[in-house]
Amino acid sequence: MFIDTHAHLQFKSFDEDREMVIQRAIENDVAAMITIGTDLTSSLQAVDLAEKYAAVYAAVGIHPTDCAEVADHDFDRIQELATHPKVVAIGEVGLDYYHMRATREKQKNAFVYQIHMAKELKKPLIIHNRESHQDMYEILAEQNLADLGAVLHSFSGDDAFFRKIMELDLYISFTGNITFKKSTSDQLVVQAPLERLLLETDSPFLTPAPFRGKRNEPAYVVHTARKIADLKEIPVEEVARVTSENAVSFFKLDL
Ligand SMILES: [Zn+2]
Which end of the chain is more exposed for a tag (fewer CB within 10 A), N or C? Predict the structure, then answer.
């Protein structure tokens, strides 16, 4: 079985066939999927989906590209939502210096605020990090998140950043982009201990080969798992088993 720890099933691109997408995932051995909020509206929608489908869990949070206009009241609503029994993490939160839709200061404030929220609620963090490695590392090192649990999703970065994240005892996950011909992550995948890896699709984005160019969905997580298995020269069953065990204990899933 596989666990897709990062999808956005509430997004518009699934409006036509959401139920079938979830069904197809289950038929393809995806035992659980976590649908991730990026702002208050999509966090509310994530919780709705988690209530409706047994295999769907939710994460709630304000994404760094959506934090420019956020009112304090929105953070309060996120905090309330996060107490829902099917909300298994705060996320996605973090820093994005590529899109820069909010100032660095605003992004850092929203990120740290939500880290405190996660600590208070004792829920792990799902972290987005794009071209913000230095500030990201400083915040993570200061916040001491190993016991709570934090995953850097769609991991990117050089070898030095990767080693620092491993030293902090955090988790990482790779998306379908590791299956692309021009992927530069092969060495990182080989080095990443299986015990520190989670599987994810980031659906509807970052579709793995051979479906690149189409909409991504949780059923395709097997293609990323297979790539990890190939690079590490181990059976895909082992990737599935260990990453599922990781996800169950990291998110305290009750499957
Ligand atoms: Zn995402």
Answer: C
CA of 64 to the centre of ligand 1 (A): 11
Least Cα distance to 230 among 178, 158, 193 occurs for: 178
CA distance 6 to 18: 16
Span 200-238, pLDDT tens digits: 999 999 999 999 999 999 999 999 999 999 999 999 999
Report the separation in Å between the CA atom of 160 and the middle of ligand 1, taken as the mean of its atom positions: 24
Q: From CA 117, how far away is CA 70, in angstroms rounded? A: 16
Alpha helix (H) ranges present in 62-103?
A: 72-81
pLDDT tens readout for residues 29-88: 999 999 999 999 999 999 999 999 999 999 999 999 998 889 889 999 999 999 999 999
How remote is the CA of residue 8 from the centroid of ligand 1, in Å?
7
Q: How far apart are CA 165 and CA 160, in angstroms?
A: 9
The pTM assigned to this predicted structure is 0.97
**Environment of ion ligand 1 (residues, CB < 5 A):** 202
Q: What is the DSSP string of 151-171?
A: EESS----HHHHHHHHHTT-E
Q: What is the distance in A from the centroid of ligand 1 to the CA of 200?
A: 9
Q: Which CATH architecture has domain 2-251?
A: Alpha-Beta Barrel (3.20)
Residue 210: its H or E element: none
